[in-house]
Automatic annotation (TrEMBL):
PANTHER family: 3'(2'),5'-BISPHOSPHATE NUCLEOTIDASE (PTHR43200:SF6), PHOSPHATASE (PTHR43200). It catalyses: adenosine 2',5'-bisphosphate + H2O = AMP + phosphate; adenosine 3',5'-bisphosphate + H2O = AMP + phosphate; 3'-phosphoadenylyl sulfate + H2O = adenosine 5'-phosphosulfate + phosphate. Belongs to the inositol monophosphatase superfamily. Its cofactor is Mg(2+). Mg(2+) binds at residues 75, 137, 139-140, 289. GO terms for biological process: inositol phosphate metabolic process; phosphatidylinositol phosphate biosynthetic process; sulfate assimilation. It comes from Asparagus officinalis (Garden asparagus). One of its GO terms (molecular function) is 3'(2'),5'-bisphosphate nucleotidase activity. It is an enzyme of class 3 (hydrolase). This is 3'(2'),5'-bisphosphate nucleotidase. The lineage of its organism: Eukaryota, Viridiplantae, Streptophyta, Embryophyta, Tracheophyta.
Length: 355
């Protein structure tokens, strides 16, 4: 029985949900970038898009997969939206969700403010090792979203603690390689949808609806030919540590810094060969920040581990319990990458606490 599990309906639903959410987010991002008055540090537009995206994904999954047991582990909850001063924001979100649904035309429904709050709150699940749980980051890469750069809608399904499918909608990612992104990104059409189902590979299509094509990680074996991705935000990952690892490994190209799980998508199609993520001490990684990206990369032939070389374990609840950082690359480069990571970590520990 378990062998015959194919998750085909679930994948189709996930793609539909993420695509609709991406449309909602693009609407909001265009508004932010258009308005001169809106200060970029104003958090309200992203809030509207985060909540709207989460409500839409939750709604579409439940419409498409009418099953009694729906569990969603998602980043946002409606706590702040239920407060007195939030009425106007909630109304904006409800309108955005309804406008997106009616432009799409699949469902003939109109949500009330309460429906939206309920949809958002369906994301309160704790996940864990039993049963099925959807895992959602409604906007991953908030900082990138506000800057008008990369962000992603990341949705995955866990079955008995394992990621069995994932989709990454990256509305601003060019359809062609960003390996030399400084040159001509503005000429390329943007908007990618990555999808992966366990045992069947990773695919990419345009968010406008082109046919999916199979993607594969880079087959670079010589670190001198490899390039690596890391966070755009230095607050999210230690750039100095990545740079020391890259030097040790013999990587020559400068880092490619982009926001969000778009890094996993770009890696899955071979735009770069390595992704290094070393958050500051004390930061705990959440499952929705890696579940979808992880299966998109592994089904494309890559590997994602922590700094000790252990597979990422998504079965422990809302957090990932891991050693030090996350590293992602192809199978050929992983052994030497792990060595470089461990050597750099050791050096860092020695300089941080001299005897
Ligand atoms: N201090 C932090 N360290 C590491 N990651 C963070 C930190 N603060 C937020 N994040 C999360 O890191 C992810 C994006 O990182 P990056 O773009 O650098 O890869 C997002 O999931 C973001 O959350 P959010 O989903 O709210 O944007
Ligand atoms: Mg995130
Ligand atoms: Mg988020
Ligand atoms: Mg956030």
């Amino acid at each position: 029985m378990a062998m015959a599990e194919s998750y085909g309906r679930e994948l189709a639903a996930a793609k539909k949900a993420a695509s609709l959410a991406a449309r909602l987010c693009q609407t909001v991002q265009k508004e932010i970038l258009k308005s001169d008055v809106q200060s970029k540090s104003d958090k309200s537009p992203v809030t509207v898009a985060d909540y709207g995206s989460q409500a839409l994904v939750s709604l579409v999954l439940r419409k498409e997969l009418s099953s009694d047991s729906f569990s969603l582990v998602a980043e946002e909850d409606s706590g702040d939206l239920r407060k007195d001063g939030a009425k106007e924001t909630l109304k904006r979100i409800t309108k955005l969700v309804n406008d997106t649904l009616s432009a799409d035309g699949t469902y003939d429904i109109s949500l009330s403010d309460d429906d939206v709050l309920d949809a958002i709150d369906s994301g309160k699940s704790e996940g864990g090792p039993d049963g099925r749980h959807w895992v959602l980051d409604p906007i991953d890469g908030t900082k990138g979203f506000l800057r008008g750069d990369q962000y992603a809608i990341a949705l995955a399904l866990l079955d008995k603690g394992k990621v069995v499918l994932g989709v990454l909608a990256c509305p601003n990612l060019p359809l062609t390689s960003i390996a030399d992104s400084n040159k001509n990104t503005h000429e390329s059409q943007v908007g990618c949808l990555f999808s992966a189902k366990i045992g069947t590979g990773s695919y990419m299509q345009s968010l406008d609806g082109s046919a999916p094509t199979k993607v594969h990680v880079s087959n670079v074996e010589n670190p001198a030919d490899a390039s690596f991705f890391e966070s755009f935000e230095a607050a999210h990952s230690l750039h100095d540590l990545s740079s020391s690892i890259a030097t040790k490994l013999g990587v020559q190209a400068p880092p490619v810094r982009i926001d969000s799980q778009a890094k996993y998508g770009a890696l899955a199609r071979g735009d770069g060969a390595i992704y290094l993520r070393f958050p500051h001490k004390g930061y705990r990684e959440k499952i929705w920040d890696h579940a979808a990206g992880c299966i998109v990369v592994t089904e494309a032939g890559g590997i994602a581990t922590d700094a000790a070389g252990n597979d990422l374990d998504f079965s422990k609840g809302r957090f990932l319990d891991l050693d030090t950082g996350i590293i992602v690359t192809n199978k050929k480069l992983m052994p030497s990458l792990l060595n470089a990571v461990q050597a750099s970590l050791k050096e860092q520990a020695q300089t941080a606490s001299p005897l």
